[in-house]
Amino acid sequence: MSRRRAPRWTELRDNLGLALPRYDRQAALDRCASVGDVRRLARRRVPRAVFDYTDGAAGDELSLRRARDQFARVEFQPRVLRDVSHVDTSTTILGRPAAMPLVLGPTGFTRLMHHAGEPAVAAVADRAGIPYALSTLGTTSLEDLAASAPGLRRWFQLYLVRDRDYCGALVDRARAAGYDTIILTVDTPVAGIRRRDIRNGLTIPPRLTWSTMADMAAHPHWWFNVLTTEPLTFATLSSTGGTVAELIDRIFDPTISLADLDWLRASWPGDLVVKGIQSVDDAQMVADHGADGVILSTHGGRQLERAPLPLELLPGVRAALPTSVDVLIDGGVMGGADIAAAVSMGATAVAVGRAYLYGLMAGGEAGVQRVVDLLRQEFSTTMALLGRTRVGELDADCVRTRP
């Protein structure tokens, strides 16, 4: 029979957490165990209109929810009794090496989320060994981003605006600044109906109204940074002011056609990727007109409500295109397991936008780093638990879709 006794200090010492609790921003990021945790932290740190611009989608947001549901339906088929002591997440994207099948995709108005903006995202991508795409609607110029991250593999996402001469000048600037890939986005001839932005009255730059002034009290750190740094403007567009939808409808060209793709292919010597593909036929069409890659994308559910699901389209598109054409997807990717699922179903890589913007809102560059670290760790762990040690081993045998 055991007798009770007083515990010795040496026995308690290793079990007591005597370190003082930390309440700094980095500590909060360190406690985030998933991108979902980072999202919840971001929601607390920025004004509602800013969070909703990133988090929201078009219409009733069905496309966004369905994209997440489609990833949730993927069931892995692991193999056991395999040596997974070393997992190599490296791959090639458009013929060049990448540390993992991930691209930090283009996002507009990035300094709206955090005053550090695109250079903070580029710094993380550079350290991670993955590409980063600057948007036409970015708040940092092509040249300034190149100067901030000279070793980064830089892509430039192009919207065709009504002034084609200006588009040509942007292409020339991208070439001169060392960008190796242009992404032509084709799913935004007009603006989608984004109801959260309408309800919040979001404008670029943010207008000081009674509601925004009240919001300052709840988010003084964000407002202080906005008001004490360079004005929030577009670095490659002279037009600004108004809502996001008003800007798109005023500047973007709804007459975009295959002739414009042919013009860009003839003008651009580097890799050319077409983003916003939502059917097998369109994927084949742009490949026939010289695209080196396609991104199956619904603009994160922010354009056409009830759009097709990129993950669902993926196997058919991959089968229809030659192996020389890379197939990427975006939309709904919130974890490393999602990356593994997409690659297993035929994707060369995935592009994320919302995920790293949550990190940017939550903690600037450190927040983006936390998101990329989580994605890398989750992807590597998923590969090991699947019994695969190289990205090339992720194939259709790894997954099935539950009905």
Task: Describe the overall structure.
- It is a single chain.
- It contains 18 helices and twelve strands.
- It is α/β, with parallel strands linked by helices and 403 residues long.
- The chain has one domain (26-199, 223-401): TIM Barrel.
- The strands form three sheets. An eight-stranded parallel β-sheet has the order 4-11-10-9-8-7-6-5.
- The longest helix is centred in the C-terminal third of the chain and has 33 residues, at 354-386.
- It is globular, with a radius of gyration of 22 Å.
- The mean pLDDT is 91.
Rg, Cα atoms, Å: 22 Å
Share of helix, binned: 40-55%
Q: Tell me the CATH architecture.
A: Alpha-Beta Barrel
How large a portion of the residues is in β-strands, by DSSP E?
A: 5-15%
Distance between the termini: 57 Å
Task: Note the overall shape.
Answer: globular
Number of strands: 12
Low-confidence stretches: none
CATH topology: TIM Barrel
The total number of structural domains is 1
Major pleated sheet? 8 strands, parallel
What's the pLDDT, averaged over the residues?
Answer: 91
Oligomer: single chain
Widest β-sheet, arrangement of strands: 4-11-10-9-8-7-6-5
Tell me the number of helical segments per DSSP (H or I, 4 or more residues long): 18
Kindly report the name of the CATH homologous superfamily.
Answer: Aldolase class I
| Alpha-beta content class | alpha/beta
Q: Quickly name the level 1 CATH class.
A: Alpha Beta
